[in-house]
Design brief:
The protein is mainly alpha-helical. The protein is about 60% helix and about 5% strand. The two termini are about 40 Å apart.
Length: about 475
Amino acid sequence: MARQRSIPPTMTPLVPIAMFGIIPLALKLFDKYPARIAAAAVFVMGWLFLPQAKYDIPILPDYAKTKALGLAVLSGILFKDRQILKSFRFRWMDIPMACWCMAPFFSSVSNDLGAWDGGSSALATTVSWGLPYLIGRLYFGSLEALRELAIGMLIGGVVVAPLAIIEMIISPQLHIFFYGWYPHDFSQSKRGGGYRPSVFMAHGLELAMWNAAAAFMGWQLFLRKSLEKKLPFFQFPLLPSVIGVTLVLVLSRSAGALMLFLVAMGVFEVCVRMKTKIPLLFFLLLPVFYMNLRAVGAWDGQSLVEAAGKLSGSVERTGSLAYRLYNENLLVEKALLRPVFGWGGFNRSFVTNENGIYISVPDGMWILTLGKNGLFGLTVLSLSILLAPIMFFIFASKRRFAEPLMAPSAAFALFLGVFMADNLFNAMYNPILMLAAGGLTSLVLSGKTEPCLHRLSHAIPLAKVHPVPVTRVI
């Protein structure tokens, strides 16, 4: 019997029903729909609606939301579409993800925490990061498949929009009402005289980044004519749906997510009109420049604080950024004491005073990774996210990446850069973007980054199809 952890006594019966019911639901979806549609539906709807719960199962990694989704889809594959696994071939572009999955093991062993701790941590990383990436490699390695995934993200944004509006009015209460508790510090939901919604996500910032991704995908689907006038399944009008998701993003009181969305829209539009890829590649590489300068202590970030103060005019936001960068400076100093594989787990990379009290706690995923897994971990994580987008834009024609069938793939490639930029200051994971990273990897390796041989179909297959002979996944 699993022992519960990180679940308060106030939890409702819906928690175990949702957490463990996602697996039979995935099997049902795999039986009813094509595997690719089923996999996307499980990840999108599960990420939006599963609780922020965690079960501690002996020997195995904690059964949490991220792992539940990957295991649910893996169950569907094993029981309903096992032949697809035979098609996978490990290629050179998979090396960063394989190394990222193993990074916790190297960190644990190098810090004398033991092979058991390292193996358990590596398995947890593999399920949370490696499994969505593998599923993306298997199912989303074509222009058509990535277009369907983009549509799925937009549908998810439309579905969650009314719930976000409710929480803007009454405060974030839905996780409490349905599951029994609020998963974060409630005071952080108060912003600008109102409330920042989180619905069933871990934090309002996580939901805001989801809405930013959904809105960005929606606008590219609309502007590039990649989708007809209505969304599949729900038959909602496309343009009002995209506008609605964008308005929810604007009203969500998350300036960072909104700013990144606007920058992504601007960069993409400039590149489409000027028929150039240089700004796209530069945008993808910006987080790498930031991490390198900060990791070696070459830049203290003070100029960024001053620029943010002039742009925002908000003392509160400027002070928050200054505090984060001050913390990073402390954490970088400690991280560089063990630069290669980091300090390992158990918060050993955090800075404490002489009484053992934490005086600096990391916010950004990059500094968390640097402290825990060192420069090795940070490098392979960055490559896992950015290598496929960079390779995609290198090989894609600058005159064709905005064509209807190709635009959703290009949108995912750019938004993986947005994801990396956001995680310079936050740690907001998104498994759907890891599906996209895996899909872009397969697309690049197949050499089919041009839409000339593809025909845009506005139909999303909704009926179960008969099995076909397995084709090789590059």
